[in-house]
Amino acid sequence: MDRRRMTMSGTRIRFVVGFGLALAFLTVSTGYGQLKVVTTLPDLESIAKFIGGEQVDVYSIATGFQNPHFVDPKPSYILRLARADVFVTVGLDLEIGWVPSLLNSARNAKIQKGGEGYVDASLGVPLLQIPTSASRAQGDIHVYGNPHYWLNPLNGKVIARNILDAFVRTDPDHRSIYESNLKEFNETLDARMKLWAASMLPYKGKKIIAYHNEWPYFEQCFGLQIVDFLEPKPGIPPTPSQLLKIINTMKRDRIKIIVISPYFTTESADLVARSVGGKVITLATSVGANEKIKTYFELFDHNVSQLEEAFR
Ligand SMILES: [Zn+2]
Question: Which of 73, 89, 145, 271 has the most neighbouring CB atoms within 10 Å?
Fold first, then answer.
């Protein structure tokens, strides 16, 4: 009798302990109490993870090897957005083709434009290439100024600040944690910036060609000169006349490098490079463009080392 009772209570203890462990595991794996954050791009995800640390669970809709202008909306993204506390977007209509419909379908007032969890990461970024008249004529997809601003690492600080503001609005209890993470982010960025700038210094003023007009902020930061683009207009694929124009420019100015992004096919760039004895290099436009680039800092580590190698 005693033995049986012992066994039963043993089973019961095991059950209770097991249940407790399962609960603890669930709590950890689902991030109980964490802010649920959805970002459009992995660069925003990386910065949000840095600022939020353990307090946030961050998911990026786009991957680092997708063209951020064109992402196919999927039902799973709507579910994520419906449950999100914070939503971070690049803004400036970069994601005009996919974000408005996702936000509409998610029906989550918190993360709609103007909601406390909505973050337009471009707020406060000194914008480049603001057109004098906003028009989508000829397929222009940069109507409010060039939206690829995260490619200047110094703009990462502005993005981080915007994200912090939303975390503090939605989760004021952890304000001091977010603020100390922001401080660490900025210090890390400043330290890395010195290394990147030193690596790029010998190539100041170097002329290059790019496929899509997504490098003005990078160019501004590192002192390169991007002379022309294979796309005749942002979002319009290269045309024979544009390629001929580029070939002439490259020959005239002795330009040897064409920069493309992971989501463009290389045919037209290869053709031009062959005609002028130049080379094509693929730079990362986002975190996750390849498996080595896991953070916002590594994005610039990669691009700087690729360019150094190409110029050498
Ligand atoms: Zn663009």
Answer: 89
Cα–Cα distance measured from residue 249 to residue 283, given in angstroms and rounded to the nearest whole number = 22
| Predicted local confidence at residue 234, as pLDDT | 87
Report yes or no: 252 and 229 within 8 Å, Cβ to Cβ.
no
Shared-domain flag, residues 105 and 219? no
Please tell me whether residues 129 and 218 are part of one structural domain.
no
E-assigned strand segments in 170-244? 207-210, 225-229
pLDDT of residue 141: 74
pLDDT of residue 235: 87
Q: Strands 118-120 and 35-39, how do they pair?
A: unpaired
What's the domain count of the chain?
2
Q: What is the pLDDT of residues 97-156, one digit of tens each?
A: 999 999 999 999 999 999 999 999 999 999 999 887 766 554 567 888 999 999 999 999
Residue 157 Cα to ligand 1 middle (Å): 21
Query: In the chain, count of helices (H) and strands (E)?
Result: 10, 8
Q: What distance in angstroms lies between residue 142's CA and the mean position of ligand 1's atoms?
A: 6
Q: How remote is the CA of residue 3 from the centroid of ligand 1, in Å?
A: 74
188 and 210 housed in the same domain: no
Is the residue at 253 inside a domain? Answer: yes
Report how far ligand 1's centroid is from the alpha carbon of 96 (Å).
11
130 and 205 within one domain: no
Q: For residue 54, how far is its CA from the centre of ligand 1 (angstroms)?
A: 33
* Segments of the chain with pLDDT less than 50: 1-11, 13, 15-16, 19-30, 138
For residue 146, report the distance from its CA to the centre of ligand 1, in Å.
7
CATH number at residue 262: 3.40.50.1980
Please identify, among 130, 164, 195, the residue that sits at the C-terminal boundary of a domain. Answer: 195
Ligand 1 is a single-atom ion; what residues have CB below 5 A from it? Answer: 214, 234
Which structural domain, as residue segments, surrounds residue 83? 32-195
Ligand 1 centroid distance, CA of 69 (Å): 7
Phi and psi at residue 57, in whole multiples of 5°? -120, 115
Q: Is the four-CA dihedral 127, 129, 131, 137 of positive or negative sign?
A: negative
